[in-house]
Amino acid sequence: MRHIKISVDVRAHPSRVWAVLSDFERWPEWTSTVTSIKRMSDGPVVPGSRLLIRQPKLPPAVWVLTEIREGWDFVWVNRGPGIKVFARHGVQALGDGTSRATLSLEFQGLLGGLIGRLTARMNERYLAIEAAGLKNRVENGWGASAG
Cα(110)–Cα(84) distance, rounded to whole angstroms? Predict the structure, then answer.
């Protein structure tokens, strides 16, 4: 498995979903899949920004923001020997004041397929928890604590 994607519909304007999704350091408040996110440099979060992410069952990892379309989506990448993992997270308007948030992971490189398969169940579960937590945070103003 090289690509995992999950979407969730949220009863809120895309700007509200984006505000929560792009406030990286506050992710631990609404998802149990992230212990901490620390920016590794001062200033605005822009392509090239590095973030240290700690997650349960995973070693600490530096993710580099490679693309950000303000109000729409961002891509960050984590690299290791033989593997690159791309995460794209975004939001789109559905109309009637609702939005769709889409969270995805893509595994590339020599070991990408193997590691993607070995971690597929955990990654699918983590993305589902993150999607549910994002929806809950945006719609209700407080985080989900799923395990």
Answer: 9
72-94: pLDDT as tens digits = 999 999 999 999 999 999 999 99
Q: How long is the chain?
A: 147
Residue 83, C-beta contacts closer than 8 angstroms, at least 6 positions apart: 107, 108, 109, 110, 111, 112, 115
Q: How far is CA 75 from CA 47, 87, 93, 98, 120, in A?
A: 9, 6, 19, 23, 19
What are the structure tokens assigned to 122, written together?
């955990």
Query: 53, exposed or middle or buried, with CB in 10 Å at 0-12, 13-18, 19+?
Result: buried
Angle, in degrees to the nearest 10, between helices 120-140 and 14-21: 120
